[in-house]
Write a structure and sequence with these properties.
Elements (H helix, E strand, L loop, with lengths): L16 H6 L10 E6 H4 L12 E3 L3 E6 L2 E6 L11 E4 H8 L2 H8 L7 E12 L4 E12 L2 E2 L4 E7 L7 E6 L9 E10 L3 E10 L11 E10 H6 L6 E6 H4 L1 E7 L9 E8 L10 E9 L5 E10 L31 E4 L2 E9 L7 E9 L9 E8 L8 E9 L4 E10 L2 E12 L5 E3 L3 E4 L19 E5 L2 E14 L2 E10 L3 H20 L10
C-alpha cells in the first residue's frame, strides 16, 4: 500500500575496468526462472494490486510473501516451472501465526470499520541465525476507504513449512489521541534487533477516509532474541514528525551476526518538504541506541546526493496504452543491506537528461559513528540502460555477497517495450568502490498492463537476496504483466562467476589493453 503525500546507463566516474570486463555477456547464467504468485491466485475476491513483490531464500526453501498469498518452493526444483510445496492466502497465514486472541483482536472490525484486511507484506531470511521473519499491516476499512488506526504484524519461524509464531503491535502510540494509520511498513533484521517502520497518516474522524497528508514516522524496535523465543518483551515504539526522522525509514538488514554492529535506519530526506531553504535530496541516518529501554538517535546525520533530480515526474511508458505504469517516487522502497562496512541501497529517481523517464540510483554510504557527523557517501551510480536509452528503470532492489559481488534487479519498460525484469551485476573493489555491468534481461513482459484507471499501480517494491549456501548465487523477485490486466511474479536465480575467475578475466583484459596501448605508431598519441 502506498499513499503519496510528499513530492518526492550513466555510470559514475569511479567505475573501474573490473566492472566491465568481469561481467561481459554470457558470464552469468539463470538456472532457475519461473512464474510464481499471480493476481488470479492472490485475491479473496478479485485479487490485489499491486502484489508488493517480496520473497526470501533459505538453505532449502524459497518463500514468497505477497499481497494475498504465501507460497513456499523447494530449492531443488529448477528450470522455468515450479510448483509450490505449500501455499495459503495471507489471512490464513496470519491466522496460523497469531494466537486466537491476537488474531481476533486484530481482525475484528471496530468503530466505523466494516472489515479488516492485510497489506504490505515483507519477508526476510537471516542466514546468521537461520530464522525467517515476516511482517504486514492490518487495514481497517469501510466503503469510503481506510477508517482507523491499525496494527503491525510480525512473525518468526526456523522452518517456513512447519509453522510461524507471531505478534500484533498497535502502530499508533497510546499517547497519541488523533487516529493515525501506519502505511508502507518496512522490516529489517540485525544480530540484536528486529525493526519495523512506517509512515503515519492522520485518519480524519469526520470523514472516516484515508485522505490526509502524512503526519509522523513510526519505528518499532524489538529484541531479536525475544522475537525468536516467541515471547516479545522490551519492544519500543517511537513516533516522531518527519522533520525528525525523514520519510519512509528503511531498517538496514545486517546478516553478519555481529552483535557489536549498530542497527541503522535510513530515509530519503528532502529539505524543501519541511522548510523553505530549497530542494536538497539527502539520505538521513538514524541509529538504534542499545539500552533498557532502547532509544533512537534522531539527530540528523545527512549525506547529500550528487544527483539532485528528485523522483520521477511521470509514470513509465508501455506499449499499447496512453496510460503509464506507476513507477513510484524516490522513497527508499526496497531493503537496504550492510556489507563491507557500508550500507547499500537503491531508489528510483528521475533521469537527469530526461525527467519523463526514470533511472535507478545505487548508493553506498559509510554510516556516521557519532552525533552531528554525516554518513559518508562513497558510491553513487545512476543506472540507465544503454541498450534502451528511452526506457524507464524502477523498483530496484540490491543484494551484496560476502565476496563483494553485487546484483541490482528491477523493472524496465518504454513505449516500445513491455514491462520486463532486468538485472545488472557488479563488484565492490578493495577500496570500497562499486562498478556495474550493463543491464541484461531476466524475463520479458508479453502484454500491456491495464488493471486500473489512470496510472497503473505497480510494485510497490521488489526483492533481491544472496543465496545463503552460495555467495555466487542471487535470487530476485520481480513483477511482470502476464496478460492485459493480470500481474504475475517472477522468481529468478542469477548465478555469477567465481571471484577467482573474475580476477583472471580482468587481469587478461588489463594486459591486453596494456599491449594495445604500447603499440604506438611514431607521431601519434596513445588512444584513450
Amino acid at each position: 500500500m502506498r499513499l503519496k503525500s510528499i513530492p518526492v546507463c550513466v555510470v559514475s566516474a569511479s567505475t573501474l575496468l573490473l566492472g566491465h570486463a568481469a561481467w561481459a555477456a554470457g558470464s552469468y547464467s539463470l538456472p532457475v526462472n519461473f512464474a510464481a504468485g499471480s493476481l488470479s491466485s492472490s485475491g479473496y475476491v478479485s485479487g490485489f494490486a499491486p502484489p508488493d513483490t517480496n520473497g526470501a531464500v533459505g538453505t532449502a526453501n524459497i518463500a514468497e510473501l505477497i499481497n494475498g498469498q504465501y507460497l513456499v518452493y523447494n530449492k531443488t526444483l529448477s528450470g522455468a516451472a515450479n510448483t509450490p510445496v505449500f501455499s495459503e492466502n495471507l489471512k490464513s497465514f496470519w491466522k496460523s501465526a497469531l494466537s486466537s486472541g491476537d488474531y481476533s483482536a486484530a481482525f475484528t472490525p471496530s468503530g466505523s470499520a466494516t472489515s479488516v484486511g492485510i497489506s504490505d507484506p515483507r519477508i526476510v531470511y537471516d542466514p546468521a541465525s537461520g530464522d525467517w521473519f515476516a511482517s504486514s499491516i492490518t487495514v481497517p476499512e469501510n466503503s469510503s476507504g481506510v477508517s482507523g488506526s491499525n496494527d503491525f504484524l510480525l512473525a518468526e519461524t526456523a522452518d517456513p513449512l512447519t509453522g510461524w509464531h507471531g505478534i500484533t503491535y498497535a502502530a499508533q502510540p497510546s499517547s497519541t489521541s488523533t487516529p493515525e494509520f501506519a502505511d508502507f511498513p518496512t522490516l529489517g533484521v540485525t544480530a540484536n534487533y528486529v525493526t519495523l517502520a512506517g509512515n503515519m497518516y492522520t485518519v480524519p474522524s469526520t470523514l472516516n477516509n484515508f485522505t490526509s497528508s502524512a503526519a509522523n514516522a513510526d519505528v518499532l524496535v524489538l529484541p531479536k532474541s525475544s522475537v525468536v523465543a516467541g515471547a516479545v518483551t522490551g519492544g519500543q515504539l517511537f513516533n516522531y514528525p518527519f522533520s525528525n526522522l525523514g520519510f519512509t525509514n528503511q531498517p538496514v538488514n545486517d546478516y553478519s551476526g555481529n552483535t557489536g554492529h549498530t542497527t541503522y535506519l535510513f530515509s530519503n530526506y528532502q529539505q524543501s518538504a519541511f522548510n523553505a531553504v530549497g530542494y536538497t535530496e539527502n539520505l538521513n541516518q538514524t541509529n538504534v541506541v542499545p539500552g533498557n529501554p532502547v532509544s533512537l538517535d534522531i539527530n540528523f546525520n545527512l549525506a547529500t546526493f550528487n544527483t539532485q533530480t528528485g523522483g520521477p515526474t511521470a509514470g513509465a511508458a508501455q506499449p499499447g496504452s496512453a496510460n503509464a505504469i506507476d513507477s513510484g517516487d524516490d522513497r527508499l522502497s526496497s531493503s537496504l543491506v550492510f556489507a563491507n562496512g557500508q550500507v547499500w541501497g537503491a531508489q528510483t529517481i528521475a533521469n537527469s537528461a530526461n525527467s519523463s523517464i526514470s533511472s535507478l540510483r545505487i548508493f553506498g554510504v559509510t554510516p556516521a559513528t557519532a552525533d552531528n557527523t554525516s554518513p559518508v557517501l562513497t558510491n553513487e551510480i545512476v543506472l540507465s540502460d544503454p541498450n534502451h536509452p528511452d526506457s524507464s528503470l524502477y523498483y530496484g532492489s540490491i543484494a551484496v555477497s560476502t565476496d563483494s559481488t553485487v546484483v541490482i534487479a528491477f523493472n524496465e519498460s518504454s513505449g516500445t517495450q513491455y514491462v520486463g525484469a532486468y538485472a545488472a551485476v557488479g563488484h565492490i573493489n578493495g577500496s570500497g568502490m562499486l562498478s556495474l555491468g550493463t543491464p541484461f534481461l531476466l524475463k520479458a513482459g508479453t502484454a500491456t498492463y491495464t488493471l486500473n484507471t489512470g496510472t497503473y499501480r505497480w510494485g510497490d517494491y521488489s526483492t533481491t537476496v544472496v543465496d545463503p549456501t552460495n555467495p555466487n548465487a542471487f535470487w530476485t523477485f520481480q513483477e511482470l504483466p502476464a496478460a492485459d490486466g493480470t500481474w504475475s511474479t517472477q522468481v529468478t536465480e542469477i548465478l555469477t562467476p567465481e571471484p577467482a575467475g573474475l580476477m583472471l578475466l580482468c587481469i587478461g583484459a588489463v594486459c591486453l589493453l596494456g599491449r594495445r596501448r604500447n603499440r604506438i605508431i611514431p607521431g601519434q598519441r596513445p588512444q584513450a
